[in-house]
From TrEMBL:
Domain of life of the native organism: Bacteria
Pfam family, one: Beta-lactamase
Keywords, comma-separated and alphabetical: Signal
Organism from which the protein derives: Solimonas terrae
Name of this chain's protein: Beta-lactamase family protein
Domain Beta-lactamase-related: 44-332
Cleavable signal peptide: 1-20
Amino acid sequence: MRPRLLLSASIALAVSVLSACSGNQDGEPQPVYDWSALATTLDSFIGNRNDEVSGYSFALRVGGQTVFTDAGGDLTSDSVVAIASASKAPSAAVILSLVRDGKIDLDVPVGNYIGNAISWPADKAAITMRMLLNHTSGIPFNSPCMDDDSTTLSACAQEIADTDLNFTPGTKFGYSGAAYQIAGLVAEQVSGQSWATLVQQRLTTPLDMPSFTYGDTGNPRLAGGALCNAADYLKFTQMILDGGKVGKTRILDSSQIAAMQVNQVQNLPVFYSPVPSDSGLNGYSFGWWISDDANHPGSAGPELSDPGMFGSTPWLDFDQRYTAIILITSSTDTGIAMWNAVRPDILDQLNGTGSSGG
């Protein structure tokens, strides 16, 4: 066993003993967890093959408490990583907070909100915010301006608006990062604030997420441009698990959290999906993929996730009340493979079927 893994296992066992001894607020002892198998599984992915990673950062929360963190290779627990498409769920949450405030109706054509900011063409007149956030708008996957930090969000939105649709809005599922740029423009228009200000006021400040950022640009890439460390991202997913609140501060309504758990693209044909065909990620709702039940034996779910192109994969489980994230700099396929490998280690402990550290 490698020295780093020995340290990881020791930390996991120490956390287990501390948890058991501390008890909860009612004086009841906490479950005893042994995360050594989880640490071993994570470490097994470090290497030089195509299906391995140069490093990872991992964090796990159970019942609102961080019970295990780990890192290996060229990443640490504090590493801030480009999370690619794992940006979508936080972006959608910021926009849904504007829906909660009555500034946006999900089913009103977004042209009503765009005003004179850009020229919105007739072929896109039926597009709503619900379609943009759930990838049913017909807007193409990408646009060159999304890689240009020197332009503005409105200029990029105009470039996207001038692009032909892939299909009639609302008739298919076609994963689209470009659609989120339009959603960001709408958010700026209805609020009178920049995207950076909206994120700061509605997400990172109330949730205390200092590492989370879309970068210093007037053209933030809402669907894939954020960076974050593991601990801060789990503050966001914990808010979702807690029904849209952090402490006494409400970010989203409980009805919006419930809507995230319902497949918004049910029965729609798939024009394009970026996840592997055998991933079991066939449902989608407001920035989140919804796992097929077969993906998580040992949990009734639902299980939501937001894997990114570089492999960083956050997920949360409403039945088992846990959330975790794997940060890597590899590929979607590798991130999902790591997720599938560590999930049984987590569920074994939460269900009391794994080895005990007590």
